[in-house]
Design a protein that fits this description.
Elements (H helix, E strand, L loop, with lengths): L5 H12 L12 H4 L7 E6 L4 E5 L5 E2 L4 H13 L20 H5 L10 H15 L2 H13 L5 E2 L1 H9 L2 H12 L7 H13 E3 L1 H7 L1 H4 L13 H14 L5 H7 L4 E3 L4 E6 L3 E6 L10 H14 L5
Antiparallel strand pairs: 1-2, 1-8, 3-5, 4-5, 6-7, 7-8
The structure holds glutamine.
Length: 305
C-alpha cells in the first residue's frame, strides 16, 4: 500500500501540464466562461482526513453538479427508500439537462444526477428541512472543516438569468405532481446549490463519508452502510451523464462531475479524490479531470474492480 499519495499526484500534474487537448470551459454564464482551461488541481483525502494535493488544489471553483451527490445523501438520510418513488436510478443516456425522457416516463426523472433528478431531490430536501441549500452548505462546511465555504451570489444570479431550461424541467415535473414546493422556490434553492464555491481539498474531504461507508468526519453516521453503497453505485452508473460508461471504463470509480470542471471520486474503504480543470468535453465533463483520474487508478491500481 502507498505511504503517501503526494508523489503520484505530482507525477499526474506533470503529465496533465503537457495535455494537448483540454476542452472548453462552460460558456452559458460569464463566471464559468472566463475560467482558464490551463488551471489544474487535484486532492486526495484519506479516511482520517489527511489530505494530499497538487497544483490549484486549494483554489475555490464553482462546484455546480458535484453538489448533487451531497443533496442526494442528505435527502436519502432523511427520507430513506421513499425517495426512489420520485426519482429513478438508471443511467439516462441523455445530456444532463435533457427534457426528452420526462414526458413518456410521467415526470419521474431517470436518476438524481441529471438536472431533472437533482431538482426532485432538492425539492424533497427542501420539503423536509425548509432550507435545502442551507442544509447542504452546513454539511459541506462541517465535513471540509472550512467555515468560509459559501454561495457565489454572481453565479447564482447568472444561473437564474439563464435558467429557462431548468425552469422548464421544474414546471413540467410539477404538472405531474412530482414537485411539492412552488417552482420559483425550488429553482432558487437549486441555483444556490450549484453556486457553492469550494476547492479540491474541501470536496475531497466532504466526500469522505462515502469512502467511510456512511460515517461523517466527526464519527457520526449519515447513511447506513447499504445507503452509502447505493449512492456510490448511482455515481458509478450515472455520475458523468451520458459518458458514465466511458468514465467507468477509464477510471473504474464512482465519480460525479460538474460543469465548473470539478469531479469527485470515491475509493470505498480507502480514500476520496477531487480534481478540477475547467476545460470540458462535449458531454460536460472536465477533460483533464477525467484524464487525471484515469492515470490515478492506472498508476495506483486503486479502483472498485
Ligand atoms: N448549473 C448547471 C445547470 O443546472 C449545472 C449542470 C452541471 O454541472 N452539469 O445546468
Amino acid at each position: 500500500m502507498l505511504q503517501s499519495f503526494q508523489p503520484v499526484l505530482e507525477r499526474i500534474a506533470e503529465e496533465m501540464a503537457g495535455l494537448a487537448v483540454r476542452g472548453r470551459p462552460a460558456d452559458y454564464i460569464p463566471a464559468l466562461a472566463s475560467a482558464d482551461p490551463r488551471r489544474f488541481g487535484m486532492a486526495v483525502a484519506e479516511l482520517d482526513g489527511t489530505v494530499y494535493g497538487v497544483g490549484d488544489w486549494q483554489h475555490p471553483f464553482s462546484t455546480q453538479s458535484v453538489t448533487k451527490v451531497f443533496t442526494l445523501a442528505l435527502s436519502l438520510a432523511r427520507e430513506g427508500d421513499a425517495l426512489w418513488e420520485h426519482v429513478g436510478r438508471e443511467p439516462s443516456g441523455n445530456p444532463f439537462n435533457s427534457l426528452v425522457q420526462l414526458e413518456y416516463e410521467n415526470g419521474i426523472p431517470r436518476n438524481p444526477f441529471i438536472n431533472a433528478g437533482a431538482l426532485v431531490v432538492t425539492d424533497r430536501l427542501h420539503r423536509l428541512t425548509g432550507d435545502a441549500s442551507g442544509c447542504l452548505l452546513d454539511f459541506l462546511r462541517a465535513e471540509s472543516g472550512n467555515q468560509d465555504l459559501g454561495f457565489d451570489r454572481d453565479v447564482a444570479a447568472s444561473e437564474t438569468e439563464r435558467g429557462d431550461r431548468n425552469a422548464a424541467l421544474g414546471h413540467f415535473m410539477a404538472s405531474y405532481g412530482n414537485i411539492v414546493n412552488p417552482v420559483p422556490t425550488l429553482l432558487r434553492e437549486y441555483f444556490r446549490q450549484c453556486s457553492i464555491a469550494a476547492s479540491c481539498a474541501d470536496l475531497a474531504l466532504a466526500t469522505g463519508f462515502l469512502a467511510r461507508h456512511g460515517i461523517r468526519a466527526d464519527g457520526s453516521r449519515l447513511l447506513t452502510r447499504s445507503q452509502a453503497k447505493q449512492v456510490n453505485a448511482v455515481m458509478l452508473t450515472c455520475g458523468t451523464y451520458d459518458a458514465a460508461g466511458d468514465f467507468a471504463y477509464r477510471v473504474g470509480l464512482p465519480g460525479k462531475s460538474g460543469v465548473g470542471g470539478g469531479i469527485i471520486a470515491v475509493v470505498p474503504g480507502r480514500c476520496t479524490l477531487c480534481v478540477w480543470s475547467p476545460g470540458l468535453d462535449e458531454r460536460g465533463n472536465s477533460v483533464a479531470g477525467v484524464a487525471a483520474l484515469d492515470r490515478f487508478t492506472t498508476i495506483t491500481g486503486l479502483s472498485v474492480f
